[in-house]
TrEMBL record, chain A:
UniProt keywords, alphabetically: Membrane, Transmembrane, Transmembrane helix
Transmembrane segments: 26-48, 60-81
Domain of life where this protein originates: Bacteria
Lineage, top ranks: Bacteria, Pseudomonadati, Pseudomonadota, Gammaproteobacteria, Pseudomonadales
Protein's name in the database: Uncharacterized protein
Species for this entry: Pseudomonas brenneri
TrEMBL record, chain B:
Keyword Membrane: yes
Signal sequence interval, chain numbering: none
Phylogenetic lineage: Bacteria, Pseudomonadati, Pseudomonadota, Gammaproteobacteria, Pseudomonadales
Segments passing through the bilayer: 40-60, 112-133, 139-156, 163-184, 190-208, 250-273, 357-379, 391-410, 416-435
Species: Pseudomonas brenneri
Name of the protein in question: Tripartite tricarboxylate transporter TctA family protein
Assigned keywords, A-Z: Membrane, Transmembrane, Transmembrane helix
Pfam families: TctA
Chain ranges of the DUF112 domain: 15-433
Length: 151, 460
Protein backbone atom coordinates (compact mmCIF):
# COMPACT_ATOMS: atom_id res chain seq x y z
CA UNK A 1 0.00 0.00 0.00
CA UNK A 2 1.42 3.36 -1.00
CA UNK A 3 1.41 6.30 1.38
CA UNK A 4 -1.38 8.78 0.69
CA UNK A 5 -0.19 11.85 -1.17
CA UNK A 6 -0.73 14.92 1.03
CA UNK A 7 -1.48 18.21 -0.63
CA UNK A 8 0.84 21.14 0.13
CA UNK A 9 -0.55 23.51 2.76
CA UNK A 10 -0.87 26.47 0.44
CA UNK A 11 -3.42 24.82 -1.83
CA UNK A 12 -7.11 25.67 -1.57
CA UNK A 13 -8.85 22.53 -2.71
CA UNK A 14 -12.49 22.40 -3.82
CA UNK A 15 -14.62 19.78 -5.46
CA UNK A 16 -15.99 21.22 -8.69
CA UNK A 17 -17.92 19.24 -11.32
CA UNK A 18 -16.94 15.88 -9.89
CA UNK A 19 -13.22 16.28 -9.18
CA UNK A 20 -10.80 18.22 -6.99
CA UNK A 21 -9.25 21.47 -8.14
CA UNK A 22 -7.11 24.21 -6.61
CA UNK A 23 -8.80 27.61 -6.53
CA UNK A 24 -5.86 29.60 -7.89
CA UNK A 25 -5.07 27.06 -10.63
CA UNK A 26 -8.72 27.00 -11.67
CA UNK A 27 -8.90 30.79 -12.04
CA UNK A 28 -5.69 30.80 -14.08
CA UNK A 29 -6.80 27.96 -16.34
CA UNK A 30 -10.16 29.61 -16.99
CA UNK A 31 -8.18 32.71 -17.97
CA UNK A 32 -5.96 30.64 -20.26
CA UNK A 33 -9.04 28.93 -21.75
CA UNK A 34 -10.62 32.29 -22.51
CA UNK A 35 -7.52 34.01 -23.91
CA UNK A 36 -6.17 31.16 -26.04
CA UNK A 37 -9.48 30.01 -27.55
CA UNK A 38 -10.85 33.49 -28.26
CA UNK A 39 -7.41 34.61 -29.45
CA UNK A 40 -7.35 31.72 -31.91
CA UNK A 41 -10.91 32.45 -33.06
CA UNK A 42 -10.54 36.19 -33.57
CA UNK A 43 -7.03 35.83 -34.97
CA UNK A 44 -8.17 33.29 -37.55
CA UNK A 45 -11.22 35.39 -38.41
CA UNK A 46 -9.06 38.46 -38.97
CA UNK A 47 -6.60 36.55 -41.18
CA UNK A 48 -9.17 34.51 -43.12
CA UNK A 49 -11.69 37.24 -43.90
CA UNK A 50 -9.75 38.73 -46.84
CA UNK A 51 -8.80 35.27 -48.25
CA UNK A 52 -12.05 33.28 -48.07
CA UNK A 53 -14.72 34.59 -50.47
CA UNK A 54 -17.83 33.94 -48.36
CA UNK A 55 -18.01 35.71 -44.99
CA UNK A 56 -20.03 32.78 -43.66
CA UNK A 57 -17.27 30.27 -44.48
CA UNK A 58 -14.56 32.53 -43.08
CA UNK A 59 -16.44 32.51 -39.79
CA UNK A 60 -16.85 28.72 -39.88
CA UNK A 61 -13.11 28.17 -40.49
CA UNK A 62 -12.40 30.60 -37.67
CA UNK A 63 -14.63 28.46 -35.44
CA UNK A 64 -12.58 25.40 -36.37
CA UNK A 65 -9.39 27.22 -35.38
CA UNK A 66 -11.14 28.40 -32.20
CA UNK A 67 -12.05 24.82 -31.26
CA UNK A 68 -8.41 23.80 -31.82
CA UNK A 69 -7.54 26.77 -29.60
CA UNK A 70 -9.71 25.26 -26.82
CA UNK A 71 -7.71 22.07 -27.11
CA UNK A 72 -4.50 24.12 -27.00
CA UNK A 73 -5.72 25.86 -23.85
CA UNK A 74 -6.36 22.43 -22.33
CA UNK A 75 -2.84 21.27 -23.19
CA UNK A 76 -1.25 24.43 -21.74
CA UNK A 77 -3.28 24.13 -18.53
CA UNK A 78 -2.42 20.44 -18.22
CA UNK A 79 1.30 21.29 -18.57
CA UNK A 80 1.14 24.13 -16.04
CA UNK A 81 -1.15 22.61 -13.41
CA UNK A 82 -0.73 19.02 -12.26
CA UNK A 83 -3.82 17.02 -11.27
CA UNK A 84 -4.92 17.13 -7.64
CA UNK A 85 -5.34 13.39 -7.47
CA UNK A 86 -3.76 10.67 -5.43
CA UNK A 87 -3.39 7.76 -7.81
CA UNK A 88 -2.73 4.44 -6.10
CA UNK A 89 -1.95 1.42 -8.16
CA UNK A 90 -2.55 -1.87 -6.44
CA UNK A 91 -4.41 -5.13 -6.79
CA UNK A 92 -7.57 -5.73 -4.82
CA UNK A 93 -6.98 -6.99 -1.29
CA UNK A 94 -8.18 -10.61 -0.85
CA UNK A 95 -9.77 -9.73 2.51
CA UNK A 96 -11.59 -6.94 0.74
CA UNK A 97 -12.99 -9.35 -1.84
CA UNK A 98 -14.97 -11.32 0.75
CA UNK A 99 -16.61 -8.02 1.69
CA UNK A 100 -17.61 -7.46 -1.95
CA UNK A 101 -19.29 -10.87 -2.01
CA UNK A 102 -21.16 -9.95 1.19
CA UNK A 103 -22.26 -6.65 -0.44
CA UNK A 104 -23.47 -8.51 -3.51
CA UNK A 105 -25.48 -10.87 -1.31
CA UNK A 106 -27.09 -7.88 0.37
CA UNK A 107 -27.94 -6.18 -2.93
CA UNK A 108 -29.19 -9.21 -4.85
CA UNK A 109 -30.75 -11.10 -1.91
CA UNK A 110 -28.95 -14.29 -2.97
CA UNK A 111 -25.67 -15.22 -4.61
CA UNK A 112 -27.39 -17.90 -6.67
CA UNK A 113 -25.88 -21.32 -7.29
CA UNK A 114 -22.61 -22.11 -9.03
CA UNK A 115 -24.20 -25.42 -10.08
CA UNK A 116 -26.57 -23.53 -12.40
CA UNK A 117 -23.73 -21.97 -14.40
CA UNK A 118 -22.65 -23.06 -17.86
CA UNK A 119 -19.21 -24.63 -18.22
CA UNK A 120 -17.73 -21.57 -19.89
CA UNK A 121 -18.68 -19.29 -16.95
CA UNK A 122 -17.22 -21.85 -14.49
CA UNK A 123 -14.00 -21.92 -16.54
CA UNK A 124 -13.91 -18.10 -16.50
CA UNK A 125 -14.36 -18.02 -12.71
CA UNK A 126 -11.59 -20.59 -12.19
CA UNK A 127 -9.24 -18.72 -14.51
CA UNK A 128 -9.83 -15.50 -12.53
CA UNK A 129 -9.38 -17.41 -9.26
CA UNK A 130 -12.80 -16.28 -8.09
CA UNK A 131 -14.42 -19.72 -8.02
CA UNK A 132 -13.52 -20.52 -4.40
CA UNK A 133 -14.58 -17.07 -3.27
CA UNK A 134 -18.10 -17.57 -4.61
CA UNK A 135 -18.09 -21.22 -3.46
CA UNK A 136 -17.44 -20.07 0.13
CA UNK A 137 -19.96 -17.25 -0.18
CA UNK A 138 -22.60 -19.67 -1.39
CA UNK A 139 -21.82 -22.14 1.44
CA UNK A 140 -22.13 -19.35 4.01
CA UNK A 141 -25.45 -18.26 2.53
CA UNK A 142 -26.81 -21.82 2.58
CA UNK A 143 -25.63 -22.27 6.17
CA UNK A 144 -27.40 -19.06 7.19
CA UNK A 145 -30.53 -20.37 5.49
CA UNK A 146 -30.39 -23.62 7.44
CA UNK A 147 -30.08 -21.63 10.66
CA UNK A 148 -33.40 -19.99 9.87
CA UNK A 149 -31.94 -16.73 8.62
CA UNK A 150 -29.62 -16.26 11.61
CA UNK A 151 -25.98 -15.87 10.58
CA UNK B 1 -19.56 5.28 -60.38
CA UNK B 2 -16.61 7.52 -59.74
CA UNK B 3 -18.90 9.93 -57.90
CA UNK B 4 -20.09 7.10 -55.68
CA UNK B 5 -16.53 5.95 -54.95
CA UNK B 6 -15.60 9.51 -54.06
CA UNK B 7 -18.58 9.79 -51.74
CA UNK B 8 -17.76 6.48 -50.03
CA UNK B 9 -14.13 7.51 -49.56
CA UNK B 10 -15.19 10.84 -48.04
CA UNK B 11 -17.65 9.06 -45.74
CA UNK B 12 -14.93 6.61 -44.72
CA UNK B 13 -12.41 9.38 -44.05
CA UNK B 14 -14.86 11.41 -41.95
CA UNK B 15 -15.96 8.27 -40.09
CA UNK B 16 -12.33 7.51 -39.31
CA UNK B 17 -11.77 11.08 -38.12
CA UNK B 18 -14.84 10.88 -35.87
CA UNK B 19 -13.76 7.51 -34.47
CA UNK B 20 -10.21 8.68 -33.67
CA UNK B 21 -11.24 12.04 -32.16
CA UNK B 22 -14.03 10.58 -30.01
CA UNK B 23 -11.98 7.56 -28.93
CA UNK B 24 -9.64 10.09 -27.34
CA UNK B 25 -12.45 12.22 -25.89
CA UNK B 26 -14.11 9.10 -24.41
CA UNK B 27 -11.05 8.47 -22.23
CA UNK B 28 -11.50 11.76 -20.39
CA UNK B 29 -14.05 11.50 -17.64
CA UNK B 30 -16.86 14.05 -17.59
CA UNK B 31 -16.85 14.81 -21.32
CA UNK B 32 -20.61 14.96 -21.86
CA UNK B 33 -21.83 13.62 -25.21
CA UNK B 34 -23.87 16.68 -26.15
CA UNK B 35 -21.17 19.18 -25.23
CA UNK B 36 -18.67 17.38 -27.48
CA UNK B 37 -20.63 15.62 -30.25
CA UNK B 38 -23.04 18.48 -31.01
CA UNK B 39 -20.54 21.31 -31.64
CA UNK B 40 -18.04 19.16 -33.55
CA UNK B 41 -20.77 17.66 -35.76
CA UNK B 42 -22.09 21.18 -36.34
CA UNK B 43 -18.61 22.19 -37.46
CA UNK B 44 -18.40 19.27 -39.90
CA UNK B 45 -21.84 20.17 -41.33
CA UNK B 46 -20.99 23.84 -41.80
CA UNK B 47 -17.59 23.12 -43.33
CA UNK B 48 -19.59 21.52 -46.15
CA UNK B 49 -18.96 17.79 -45.62
CA UNK B 50 -21.17 15.63 -47.86
CA UNK B 51 -24.35 14.28 -46.15
CA UNK B 52 -22.99 10.72 -45.96
CA UNK B 53 -19.81 12.00 -44.33
CA UNK B 54 -21.78 13.98 -41.76
CA UNK B 55 -23.64 10.79 -40.80
CA UNK B 56 -20.51 8.62 -40.57
CA UNK B 57 -18.65 11.28 -38.55
CA UNK B 58 -21.43 11.48 -35.98
CA UNK B 59 -22.20 7.76 -35.73
CA UNK B 60 -18.57 6.61 -35.67
CA UNK B 61 -17.85 9.27 -33.04
CA UNK B 62 -20.76 8.21 -30.82
CA UNK B 63 -19.96 4.49 -31.13
CA UNK B 64 -16.23 4.98 -30.47
CA UNK B 65 -16.88 7.26 -27.49
CA UNK B 66 -19.20 4.69 -25.92
CA UNK B 67 -16.44 2.09 -26.18
CA UNK B 68 -13.54 4.09 -24.78
CA UNK B 69 -15.74 5.55 -22.01
CA UNK B 70 -15.38 2.07 -20.48
CA UNK B 71 -11.72 2.85 -19.65
CA UNK B 72 -12.22 5.41 -16.84
CA UNK B 73 -15.45 3.67 -15.79
CA UNK B 74 -13.87 0.22 -15.35
CA UNK B 75 -10.30 1.06 -14.34
CA UNK B 76 -10.77 4.18 -12.21
CA UNK B 77 -14.37 3.97 -11.03
CA UNK B 78 -15.29 7.38 -12.50
CA UNK B 79 -17.95 7.61 -15.22
CA UNK B 80 -16.52 8.28 -18.69
CA UNK B 81 -19.57 10.32 -19.71
CA UNK B 82 -23.24 10.80 -18.97
CA UNK B 83 -24.54 7.36 -19.93
CA UNK B 84 -21.56 5.66 -18.25
CA UNK B 85 -22.97 6.68 -14.86
CA UNK B 86 -25.50 3.86 -15.34
CA UNK B 87 -22.65 1.32 -15.56
CA UNK B 88 -20.67 2.52 -12.57
CA UNK B 89 -22.26 0.25 -9.94
CA UNK B 90 -21.54 -3.01 -11.78
CA UNK B 91 -18.08 -1.80 -12.83
CA UNK B 92 -17.21 -0.97 -9.22
CA UNK B 93 -18.14 -4.46 -7.98
CA UNK B 94 -15.93 -6.07 -10.61
CA UNK B 95 -13.11 -3.62 -9.86
CA UNK B 96 -13.26 -4.46 -6.15
CA UNK B 97 -13.26 -8.17 -6.99
CA UNK B 98 -9.89 -7.49 -8.63
CA UNK B 99 -11.10 -8.10 -12.20
CA UNK B 100 -11.57 -4.62 -13.73
CA UNK B 101 -10.09 -5.88 -16.99
CA UNK B 102 -13.05 -8.27 -17.26
CA UNK B 103 -15.49 -5.37 -16.77
CA UNK B 104 -13.66 -3.40 -19.47
CA UNK B 105 -13.53 -6.19 -22.03
CA UNK B 106 -17.14 -7.22 -21.52
CA UNK B 107 -18.30 -3.63 -21.82
CA UNK B 108 -16.58 -2.86 -25.09
CA UNK B 109 -17.46 -6.22 -26.60
CA UNK B 110 -21.11 -5.75 -25.63
CA UNK B 111 -20.94 -2.30 -27.23
CA UNK B 112 -19.53 -3.70 -30.48
CA UNK B 113 -22.13 -6.46 -30.73
CA UNK B 114 -25.03 -4.09 -29.99
CA UNK B 115 -23.81 -1.42 -32.42
CA UNK B 116 -23.67 -3.93 -35.28
CA UNK B 117 -27.22 -5.08 -34.55
CA UNK B 118 -28.68 -1.65 -33.90
CA UNK B 119 -28.03 -0.18 -37.37
CA UNK B 120 -30.07 -2.66 -39.47
CA UNK B 121 -32.80 -2.82 -36.79
CA UNK B 122 -33.10 0.95 -36.60
CA UNK B 123 -33.38 1.15 -40.37
CA UNK B 124 -36.10 -1.50 -40.24
CA UNK B 125 -38.07 0.32 -37.51
CA UNK B 126 -37.68 3.59 -39.41
CA UNK B 127 -39.07 2.01 -42.58
CA UNK B 128 -42.02 0.66 -40.59
CA UNK B 129 -42.69 4.08 -39.05
CA UNK B 130 -42.15 6.09 -42.24
CA UNK B 131 -45.79 5.80 -43.48
CA UNK B 132 -46.82 7.77 -40.38
CA UNK B 133 -44.18 10.40 -41.13
CA UNK B 134 -46.59 12.69 -43.00
CA UNK B 135 -49.10 12.75 -40.15
CA UNK B 136 -46.38 13.20 -37.54
CA UNK B 137 -44.89 16.11 -39.48
CA UNK B 138 -48.31 17.75 -39.79
CA UNK B 139 -48.89 17.54 -36.06
CA UNK B 140 -45.22 18.03 -35.14
CA UNK B 141 -45.84 20.88 -32.65
CA UNK B 142 -48.27 18.73 -30.66
CA UNK B 143 -46.15 15.61 -30.93
CA UNK B 144 -43.24 17.55 -29.43
CA UNK B 145 -45.42 18.87 -26.64
CA UNK B 146 -46.61 15.35 -25.75
CA UNK B 147 -43.07 13.96 -25.99
CA UNK B 148 -41.79 16.74 -23.73
CA UNK B 149 -44.47 16.02 -21.13
CA UNK B 150 -43.80 12.27 -21.26
CA UNK B 151 -40.02 12.64 -20.99
CA UNK B 152 -40.48 15.11 -18.11
CA UNK B 153 -42.76 12.71 -16.24
CA UNK B 154 -40.27 9.85 -16.63
CA UNK B 155 -37.35 11.98 -15.38
CA UNK B 156 -36.23 11.91 -11.75
CA UNK B 157 -38.33 14.99 -10.99
CA UNK B 158 -41.69 13.38 -12.04
CA UNK B 159 -44.47 15.99 -11.60
CA UNK B 160 -41.99 18.67 -10.55
CA UNK B 161 -40.33 18.29 -13.96
CA UNK B 162 -43.67 18.40 -15.79
CA UNK B 163 -44.61 21.66 -14.08
CA UNK B 164 -41.10 23.11 -14.38
CA UNK B 165 -41.39 22.78 -18.16
CA UNK B 166 -43.69 25.83 -18.14
CA UNK B 167 -41.28 28.40 -16.64
CA UNK B 168 -38.32 26.82 -18.45
CA UNK B 169 -40.07 27.16 -21.82
CA UNK B 170 -41.05 30.74 -20.93
CA UNK B 171 -37.39 31.59 -20.29
CA UNK B 172 -36.35 30.14 -23.67
CA UNK B 173 -39.13 31.99 -25.49
CA UNK B 174 -38.11 35.20 -23.70
CA UNK B 175 -34.45 34.71 -24.61
CA UNK B 176 -35.41 34.12 -28.24
CA UNK B 177 -37.49 37.28 -28.28
CA UNK B 178 -34.55 39.19 -26.80
CA UNK B 179 -31.99 37.92 -29.32
CA UNK B 180 -34.57 38.26 -32.14
CA UNK B 181 -34.89 41.93 -31.23
CA UNK B 182 -31.23 42.32 -32.28
CA UNK B 183 -31.66 40.07 -35.35
CA UNK B 184 -29.79 37.11 -33.80
CA UNK B 185 -31.20 33.57 -34.10
CA UNK B 186 -29.51 30.95 -31.93
CA UNK B 187 -29.68 27.15 -31.71
CA UNK B 188 -26.39 25.44 -30.81
CA UNK B 189 -25.87 27.96 -27.98
CA UNK B 190 -28.96 26.56 -26.24
CA UNK B 191 -27.72 22.97 -26.61
CA UNK B 192 -24.27 23.80 -25.34
CA UNK B 193 -25.75 25.76 -22.42
CA UNK B 194 -27.89 22.79 -21.40
CA UNK B 195 -24.99 20.35 -21.83
CA UNK B 196 -22.46 22.30 -19.76
CA UNK B 197 -25.09 23.33 -17.19
CA UNK B 198 -23.59 21.27 -14.32
CA UNK B 199 -20.19 22.95 -14.87
CA UNK B 200 -21.68 26.44 -14.99
CA UNK B 201 -23.77 25.79 -11.87
CA UNK B 202 -20.67 24.49 -9.99
CA UNK B 203 -18.57 27.50 -10.96
CA UNK B 204 -21.26 29.92 -9.76
CA UNK B 205 -21.63 27.93 -6.52
CA UNK B 206 -17.90 28.23 -5.95
CA UNK B 207 -18.26 32.03 -5.87
CA UNK B 208 -20.91 31.97 -3.13
CA UNK B 209 -19.18 31.86 0.29
CA UNK B 210 -21.55 29.40 2.00
CA UNK B 211 -21.64 26.99 -0.97
CA UNK B 212 -17.86 27.26 -1.27
CA UNK B 213 -17.45 25.94 2.26
CA UNK B 214 -19.47 22.84 1.29
CA UNK B 215 -17.21 22.29 -1.69
CA UNK B 216 -13.95 22.67 0.25
CA UNK B 217 -11.70 19.58 0.47
CA UNK B 218 -8.60 18.98 2.61
CA UNK B 219 -7.18 16.01 0.78
CA UNK B 220 -6.49 14.99 -2.79
CA UNK B 221 -9.12 12.67 -4.16
CA UNK B 222 -7.87 9.09 -4.08
CA UNK B 223 -8.08 7.06 -7.28
CA UNK B 224 -7.11 3.43 -7.26
CA UNK B 225 -5.92 2.39 -10.68
CA UNK B 226 -6.32 -1.30 -11.35
CA UNK B 227 -3.17 -3.16 -12.46
CA UNK B 228 -2.69 -4.26 -16.06
CA UNK B 229 -3.65 -7.77 -17.08
CA UNK B 230 -3.47 -8.99 -20.66
CA UNK B 231 -5.11 -12.33 -21.30
CA UNK B 232 -4.58 -12.94 -25.02
CA UNK B 233 -1.93 -12.71 -27.71
CA UNK B 234 -2.12 -10.53 -30.81
CA UNK B 235 -3.71 -7.17 -31.42
CA UNK B 236 -7.36 -7.95 -32.12
CA UNK B 237 -8.91 -10.28 -29.52
CA UNK B 238 -11.82 -12.43 -30.68
CA UNK B 239 -15.02 -10.85 -29.26
CA UNK B 240 -16.73 -14.23 -28.94
CA UNK B 241 -14.03 -15.44 -26.57
CA UNK B 242 -14.50 -12.36 -24.39
CA UNK B 243 -18.22 -12.79 -23.87
CA UNK B 244 -20.05 -16.11 -23.85
CA UNK B 245 -22.97 -17.26 -25.98
CA UNK B 246 -25.64 -16.25 -23.51
CA UNK B 247 -24.09 -12.79 -23.14
CA UNK B 248 -24.16 -12.34 -26.92
CA UNK B 249 -27.82 -13.39 -26.96
CA UNK B 250 -28.87 -11.17 -24.06
CA UNK B 251 -26.97 -8.18 -25.47
CA UNK B 252 -28.59 -8.69 -28.87
CA UNK B 253 -32.02 -8.82 -27.24
CA UNK B 254 -31.37 -5.72 -25.15
CA UNK B 255 -30.11 -3.90 -28.25
CA UNK B 256 -33.24 -4.87 -30.18
CA UNK B 257 -35.65 -3.78 -27.46
CA UNK B 258 -33.83 -0.52 -26.83
CA UNK B 259 -33.76 0.23 -30.57
CA UNK B 260 -37.56 0.12 -30.65
CA UNK B 261 -38.08 2.34 -27.61
CA UNK B 262 -36.39 5.33 -29.15
CA UNK B 263 -38.27 8.05 -27.26
CA UNK B 264 -36.78 7.27 -23.82
CA UNK B 265 -33.52 8.67 -22.52
CA UNK B 266 -30.43 6.48 -23.05
CA UNK B 267 -29.49 6.59 -19.35
CA UNK B 268 -32.98 5.43 -18.33
CA UNK B 269 -32.98 2.63 -20.92
CA UNK B 270 -29.52 1.50 -19.79
CA UNK B 271 -30.67 1.27 -16.18
CA UNK B 272 -34.00 -0.42 -16.98
CA UNK B 273 -32.59 -3.03 -19.39
CA UNK B 274 -29.94 -3.93 -16.83
CA UNK B 275 -32.58 -4.44 -14.12
CA UNK B 276 -34.74 -6.59 -16.39
CA UNK B 277 -31.83 -8.82 -17.41
CA UNK B 278 -30.34 -8.97 -13.92
CA UNK B 279 -33.59 -10.19 -12.39
CA UNK B 280 -33.42 -13.32 -14.58
CA UNK B 281 -29.86 -14.36 -13.73
CA UNK B 282 -29.37 -15.91 -10.30
CA UNK B 283 -25.63 -16.46 -9.86
CA UNK B 284 -23.99 -13.20 -8.75
CA UNK B 285 -20.85 -13.22 -10.94
CA UNK B 286 -22.79 -14.31 -14.00
CA UNK B 287 -25.35 -11.59 -13.30
CA UNK B 288 -22.74 -8.83 -12.87
CA UNK B 289 -20.83 -9.65 -16.04
CA UNK B 290 -23.90 -10.26 -18.19
CA UNK B 291 -25.61 -7.07 -17.02
CA UNK B 292 -22.53 -4.91 -17.64
CA UNK B 293 -22.13 -6.42 -21.14
CA UNK B 294 -25.75 -5.77 -22.06
CA UNK B 295 -25.82 -2.34 -20.43
CA UNK B 296 -22.93 -1.00 -22.45
CA UNK B 297 -24.59 -2.53 -25.49
CA UNK B 298 -27.66 -0.45 -24.71
CA UNK B 299 -25.60 2.76 -24.54
CA UNK B 300 -24.63 2.08 -28.17
CA UNK B 301 -27.98 0.87 -29.48
CA UNK B 302 -30.00 3.74 -27.95
CA UNK B 303 -27.64 6.30 -29.48
CA UNK B 304 -27.84 4.68 -32.90
CA UNK B 305 -31.61 4.08 -32.86
CA UNK B 306 -32.51 7.45 -31.36
CA UNK B 307 -30.51 9.12 -34.12
CA UNK B 308 -31.44 7.00 -37.13
CA UNK B 309 -35.15 6.35 -36.52
CA UNK B 310 -36.35 9.96 -36.15
CA UNK B 311 -33.93 11.10 -38.84
CA UNK B 312 -35.09 8.55 -41.42
CA UNK B 313 -38.79 8.33 -40.57
CA UNK B 314 -39.64 11.97 -39.77
CA UNK B 315 -36.68 14.28 -40.26
CA UNK B 316 -37.69 15.79 -36.92
CA UNK B 317 -35.59 15.46 -33.75
CA UNK B 318 -38.16 13.37 -31.84
CA UNK B 319 -35.96 11.61 -29.26
CA UNK B 320 -33.66 12.72 -26.43
CA UNK B 321 -30.52 11.92 -28.48
CA UNK B 322 -31.88 13.54 -31.65
CA UNK B 323 -32.87 16.59 -29.64
CA UNK B 324 -29.44 16.85 -28.00
CA UNK B 325 -26.14 15.38 -29.24
CA UNK B 326 -27.48 14.58 -32.75
CA UNK B 327 -29.26 17.94 -33.15
CA UNK B 328 -26.93 19.25 -35.92
CA UNK B 329 -27.97 16.34 -38.17
CA UNK B 330 -31.49 17.84 -38.13
CA UNK B 331 -30.90 21.51 -37.69
CA UNK B 332 -27.73 23.39 -38.60
CA UNK B 333 -28.75 26.65 -40.23
CA UNK B 334 -28.21 27.74 -42.92
CA UNK B 335 -27.44 24.28 -44.32
CA UNK B 336 -29.94 22.02 -42.53
CA UNK B 337 -33.25 23.29 -41.19
CA UNK B 338 -36.63 22.31 -39.80
CA UNK B 339 -39.41 24.82 -40.54
CA UNK B 340 -41.69 25.14 -37.52
CA UNK B 341 -44.71 26.54 -39.33
CA UNK B 342 -45.02 24.24 -42.34
CA UNK B 343 -43.33 21.10 -40.99
CA UNK B 344 -40.96 21.23 -43.98
CA UNK B 345 -37.50 19.80 -43.42
CA UNK B 346 -34.22 19.97 -45.27
CA UNK B 347 -31.62 17.75 -43.64
CA UNK B 348 -30.18 14.23 -43.88
CA UNK B 349 -33.81 13.00 -43.93
CA UNK B 350 -34.25 14.04 -47.55
CA UNK B 351 -30.58 14.07 -48.59
CA UNK B 352 -29.95 10.35 -47.96
CA UNK B 353 -31.96 7.31 -49.08
CA UNK B 354 -32.87 4.29 -46.95
CA UNK B 355 -30.01 2.30 -48.49
CA UNK B 356 -27.62 5.19 -47.84
CA UNK B 357 -28.59 5.16 -44.16
CA UNK B 358 -28.08 1.41 -43.93
CA UNK B 359 -24.81 1.34 -45.86
CA UNK B 360 -23.17 4.41 -44.34
CA UNK B 361 -24.53 3.51 -40.88
CA UNK B 362 -22.82 0.11 -41.06
CA UNK B 363 -19.66 1.70 -42.46
CA UNK B 364 -19.55 4.12 -39.50
CA UNK B 365 -20.05 1.35 -36.93
CA UNK B 366 -17.41 -0.90 -38.50
CA UNK B 367 -14.84 1.91 -38.70
CA UNK B 368 -15.53 2.85 -35.06
CA UNK B 369 -15.13 -0.76 -33.92
CA UNK B 370 -11.90 -1.23 -35.88
CA UNK B 371 -10.45 1.89 -34.24
CA UNK B 372 -11.80 1.78 -30.68
CA UNK B 373 -12.03 -1.96 -29.96
CA UNK B 374 -8.38 -2.99 -30.38
CA UNK B 375 -7.18 0.35 -28.98
CA UNK B 376 -9.16 -0.13 -25.77
CA UNK B 377 -8.23 -3.81 -25.49
CA UNK B 378 -4.51 -3.14 -25.77
CA UNK B 379 -3.88 0.29 -24.31
CA UNK B 380 -6.62 0.81 -21.72
CA UNK B 381 -4.29 0.74 -18.73
CA UNK B 382 -1.73 3.10 -20.22
CA UNK B 383 -4.45 5.46 -21.42
CA UNK B 384 -6.19 5.53 -18.03
CA UNK B 385 -2.88 6.14 -16.23
CA UNK B 386 -1.98 8.96 -18.62
CA UNK B 387 -5.35 10.71 -18.26
CA UNK B 388 -5.49 10.48 -14.47
CA UNK B 389 -1.84 11.48 -13.91
CA UNK B 390 -1.30 14.08 -16.63
CA UNK B 391 -4.63 15.75 -17.43
CA UNK B 392 -5.75 17.89 -14.52
CA UNK B 393 -9.38 18.72 -13.98
CA UNK B 394 -8.43 22.38 -14.39
CA UNK B 395 -7.31 21.59 -17.95
CA UNK B 396 -10.62 19.90 -18.77
CA UNK B 397 -12.52 22.90 -17.38
CA UNK B 398 -10.30 25.31 -19.35
CA UNK B 399 -11.14 23.43 -22.55
CA UNK B 400 -14.88 23.57 -21.92
CA UNK B 401 -14.77 27.26 -20.98
CA UNK B 402 -12.95 27.89 -24.25
CA UNK B 403 -15.61 25.92 -26.12
CA UNK B 404 -18.44 27.89 -24.50
CA UNK B 405 -16.78 31.18 -25.44
CA UNK B 406 -15.92 30.25 -29.02
CA UNK B 407 -19.28 28.66 -29.85
CA UNK B 408 -21.29 31.38 -28.10
CA UNK B 409 -19.44 34.24 -29.74
CA UNK B 410 -19.35 32.50 -33.11
CA UNK B 411 -23.11 31.96 -33.14
CA UNK B 412 -24.38 35.18 -31.64
CA UNK B 413 -21.61 37.37 -30.28
CA UNK B 414 -22.17 38.58 -26.74
CA UNK B 415 -25.84 37.53 -26.90
CA UNK B 416 -24.84 33.93 -27.70
CA UNK B 417 -22.57 33.88 -24.68
CA UNK B 418 -25.27 35.34 -22.42
CA UNK B 419 -27.73 32.69 -23.58
CA UNK B 420 -25.29 29.85 -22.80
CA UNK B 421 -24.61 31.20 -19.31
CA UNK B 422 -28.28 31.91 -18.55
CA UNK B 423 -29.56 28.56 -19.79
CA UNK B 424 -26.62 26.76 -18.17
CA UNK B 425 -27.08 28.32 -14.75
CA UNK B 426 -30.85 27.78 -14.74
CA UNK B 427 -30.64 24.26 -16.17
CA UNK B 428 -27.85 23.25 -13.81
CA UNK B 429 -29.77 24.22 -10.69
CA UNK B 430 -33.08 22.79 -11.95
CA UNK B 431 -31.35 19.46 -12.64
CA UNK B 432 -29.58 19.44 -9.27
CA UNK B 433 -32.55 20.39 -7.08
CA UNK B 434 -35.58 19.08 -8.98
CA UNK B 435 -34.25 16.27 -11.19
CA UNK B 436 -35.28 18.31 -14.26
CA UNK B 437 -32.58 16.61 -16.30
CA UNK B 438 -30.82 17.41 -19.56
CA UNK B 439 -33.16 15.29 -21.71
CA UNK B 440 -36.20 17.24 -20.45
CA UNK B 441 -34.36 20.52 -21.00
CA UNK B 442 -33.67 19.66 -24.65
CA UNK B 443 -37.35 18.85 -25.13
CA UNK B 444 -38.19 22.14 -23.40
CA UNK B 445 -36.12 23.91 -26.03
CA UNK B 446 -38.04 22.21 -28.84
CA UNK B 447 -41.36 22.94 -27.14
CA UNK B 448 -40.39 26.61 -27.13
CA UNK B 449 -39.35 26.56 -30.79
CA UNK B 450 -42.02 24.30 -32.31
CA UNK B 451 -45.02 24.00 -29.98
CA UNK B 452 -45.31 27.50 -28.55
CA UNK B 453 -46.00 29.17 -31.95
CA UNK B 454 -48.75 26.57 -32.58
CA UNK B 455 -50.26 27.10 -29.13
CA UNK B 456 -50.27 30.86 -29.66
CA UNK B 457 -51.87 30.43 -33.11
CA UNK B 458 -54.55 28.20 -31.60
CA UNK B 459 -55.25 30.65 -28.79
CA UNK B 460 -55.62 33.34 -31.45
Amino acid sequence: MQQPLSPPKKQNLYEVWGDTIDGRDLVLSIGIGAVVSLGAYFGAHYLLQPIVESAQMAKTYAMLVGVLGCLGAGVISAKLFPPKRDVQEHAADPAFRAQVVADLLKEYGSLGRLEDLSDEVIAELRELELYDLFREGQAREEQAHLNGGRP
Amino acid sequence: MEMLMHEIMMAFALGLLGAVVFSAIGLVSGTDETATLAPLTMLVVLLGAPPAGVLTFFLAGAVAKHMTHAVPTALLGIPGDTVATALLGDANYLRKLGVPHIALRKMITGGAVAALIAVPLSVLFAVLLAPFGGVIKQFAPWVFLCAALAIAYFSAGRWASVLTLVPFVVVIVALQALTGHYGVKLSVSYFLGIAVAPLIASLFSLLAPSEREHMRRNEYRVFSLAPDVKGWSGYFPNPFKVINRRQVKVTAMAASVSSATFVFSPVAMTVIMGEVIGARIKQAYDRLTTVITARNGVTESTYIAETLIPLMAFGLPLSPVAAGPAAPLFNAPPRFWVDNASGQVNNLHNLLSTWDFLGYGMLAVIVAILVAYPFTMNFAHGAAAFVVRKISHEAVIATFIGLVLVIGIWEGGLLGLLVIVTVGLLGGFLARFLGFNTGVQFMGYYTAVLSVPAIIALAG
